[in-house]
Design goal:
By secondary structure, this protein is α/β, with parallel strands linked by helices. Helix content is 43%, strand content 20%. The strands form three sheets. A six-stranded mixed sheet has the order 1-2-10-7-8-9, with helices on both faces. Helix 1 packs across helix 3 (52-62).
Amino acid sequence: MTVTPKDIQDAADLIHDEILRTPLVYSPLFSRRFGGEIHLKMENLQKTGSFKIRGAAHKLLKRSGEIGPLGVVAASAGNHAQGVALAARGAGVPAVIVMPEWASISKQEATSAYGGEVILHGESVEESLRKALELSEEGRTFIHPFDDPDIIAGQGTIAREILDELPETDAIIVPIGGGGLISGIAVGAKAIRPDVRIIGVETANCPSGHASLRKGERVRVSAGTSIADGISVKQVGEANFEIIRKLVDSIVLVDEEAIASAILTLLESKKILAEGAGAVPLAALMSGAVGMTPGSRTVLVISGGNVDSPLLGRIITKGLVKNGRIMRVQVQISDTPGALARVLSLIAEAKANVMHIDHHRHARNLPLYTTAVDLELETRGEPHIREIQKTLSDAGYEITIECRI
């Protein structure tokens, strides 16, 4: 299964009216920070909040005469589900989406709202996939999330949009899950600008593409829990890997703290809501996994923005801790009236904001008439944390800094 530049051009023509041409936004802030021109390809603003609609719409439109009598079926825990549901509605065919039983309620509801019939089945996406394949035997066309040339060509339309607006692009940094996005972008970009660097980014908790590229063949890896769940795919696709091996220049890994920090940075500095998978290109720059050549022009593909609301709060907190914006400190004080007020006065003088207080009068190893107070403080960053620590220590308090939540 090969994908050609012509396939991508044909896909762009076919899905033109079904998708949004998402903006390519120059970031002066990130450009100054990293020493080169940084542009953001905003696929988080795409229909359904993700690039996935491109491949799904292309598949349905290109194969409209081959769709099974009962419509289409797909398996997904999130973005692919929504993309297929909306694309099927646009094509006027029914869609059944099999989601694992743990799929978030918000993503189930979004998929249903786009017209998909949601079936909950299985404890993993793999089990959902097997169920979807069973349903395809009843007369439904199965739509794979990434290992399909039509899907790859649809995702590759992003590359054409990038290079139409920024022909002199030197590098494109792309999230990798199953490989549909990066393989399409690699084919599309290299055909227009052969010397453009295509750099993939994975979570270190699921390094399937990285491990495969190092070994020279597809390998299956174990996957840990990740806030970049959209790219936690244990094995890249067969068609995808053939393209990755030939056209992708490198694949780097980022850890969970770096991803959380990138989500927070995009939200605070650019007012961009990106899901974990969408933030990994910035995480690669912030962590140093990818370096910038001075003056070069780099595009970060912000692939999606679908974050569950309960998870977002936890991600922001983790990012604040990583960036030194939250400090957790335990202070031992005398268990007498006014002791806590004196500590809080010192913290106020240091211009920190108290977010939470917890007393421990009966903690083990505490001296008699002493209490331990846990404080969670909002700070301006690491220098401010050191300033607060010095203020408390100079005042004679015994403190313990906890850097992580």
